Amino acid sequence: MLRAAASRCAGGAIRRLSVASYSAAAGAWRKPPLDEGDWSYYKEWWGEDDGPGDGAHTVFRRHSEHGNGVVSVAAYPASIPASDQWPVMERWLQERNLAMYPESSGADQFKILGYQWRVMRFNDHTRQSTAKVMACYRSGGDRALYSMQQPNCLAVPYVKSMVSAGLTALPSCSYDLPRAVSEPNTMKILCIGHGGGSIPLFLASKFRGADVHIVEIDPVVVSASVESMGFPASCAKGLSDHTMQPADGDELLWNGVHDRISLHIEDAEDFIAGDSNIYDLVFIDAYDGNDIFPRKLWDADGPFLRNLEEKVHPVHGTVVVNLHSDSEASSPDVDDEAPFENVLPMGRYVSHVCRAYKRHFGLAFTTASPWLCNITMVACRDEAMLRGAPVGHSRRDFVLSKLLSRSGMIERVLDLLPFPCLQYVRNGFTLVE
C-alpha cells in the first residue's frame, strides 16, 4: 500500500530510472526492455490526493466489512503499449485459442480493445495498489470480453523495492534461485495482503517452480482484483461466482501461470497457525483502510511472529515487509503516544517493527523506496547471510556487498526483467542493529 501523502516525500521531483543496469557477474552493461511501470508514467495513474481526479472513471465500488471502508477501483487510460504493438498480443491470443479449441480452425478472432491503469483505493484517498490491465474481445461463435493484468508491469516503486530486496536476499542465503525458474514446485511463496495481486502474478509468471499462496482477510478486496484488475478468478478460494471473466479466461490468458497461485480469504494469523507449508519467501503488505498495520503482525511476543518463524525455511527463509515511514504519529510535537499504540509501523516506529522481526529471524535490513515514503524491511537467518564474513569486517558492508553481487544474477535468470534490482537494493540500505 502507498499513501496519498507520499507525494509529499517525492517533493515533486520525478526522475526516470536508468535504462542501463550493470550485470556484476557478467561484467557487462545491458539495456533492459521498456519498463511499462516506470515512475515517469506516474501522471497517468497517480490521480489526486482526495480521489481519482480528471480522466478516470470508477469501475468498482463496494463497502468492506473488514476495516477497509469503501473499496474502489478507478480506471485511467494508458499510453503504452501503443496501438501499433497490439497485433503481437492478438496473434498470441489467436495461437492460444487455437491450441485450446483446434476445431475452431481460426474462426475466432481476437482484437485488443486497449490498456488501462487500474488503481485500487480505500476510502477514496489511500492508494492501495496499481496495475496495468489489457482488455480484449473474441469474436466468432463464442463471443467474449476478457481482461488480463500485465504481470511484468510493476507500477509502484515500493513493489519493485520489495521484489528486488527479497529476490536478492534469497540466493544470498544459499537458495538455488535459477532452479526455481525452470523446475516445477520448487519455490514456496507466501503473500500476506493481496491488493491487486501484482507481486504474486509477477513471481508466478517468472518462476515455473513457484507455488504462491496469498492470504487476504477481505473478500471485497479479492472481488475488486478479480472483477476490475484482471486477476485470475480461479486462484481465489471461497470467492462468490460473480466475476466478469468468461469461464475459459484464466486458461486462455494465463497458460498455466494461474495454476501456481492459491488465494485464501482468511485472517493471516489464523492461516499461518494452521498452515503446514515451509516457505522460502514471504511478502507482507497488510495495511487497512485507516492505514494501520495490525499490531498482531509485528508483536514480537504474539502468536503470528512465533508461528511465522516456524513456517519459514530454517536456512534461507526470507521475509519482506512493506513499511510506511511518513505519519503524523512520528511528529515530535505529539506528546501523547497512546492513540498510536496500534498504528505501527510509521515514522520513528519503523525501528520497533524491524527489531521484532530481527529478534525472530536473526538479521534484518531496510531499503528506502524512491519517490515514496515507503521502506522495505527484509528479515532472514543471520547464520546464512553472514556465512563467509571476514572477522572484524563491517557487517553492514559485507551484507550489502553480498546482496549487490547477486543482483546481476537475478536480472539474468529472470529473463526480460524490466527494472534493475541493484538500484532498489542499495537505495538507503541500512542494517538493523
Automatic annotation (TrEMBL):
Keyword Transferase carried by entry: yes
Entry similarity comment: Belongs to the methyltransferase superfamily.
GO biological process: methylation
Name recorded for this polypeptide: S-adenosyl-L-methionine-dependent methyltransferase superfamily protein
Record keyword Iron present: no
InterPro entries per record: Lys/N-term_MeTrsfase_sf, SAM-dependent_MTases_sf
Signal peptide interval: none
Example GO molecular function: methyltransferase activity
Keyword field: Methyltransferase, Transferase
Gene encoding the protein: LOC123430510
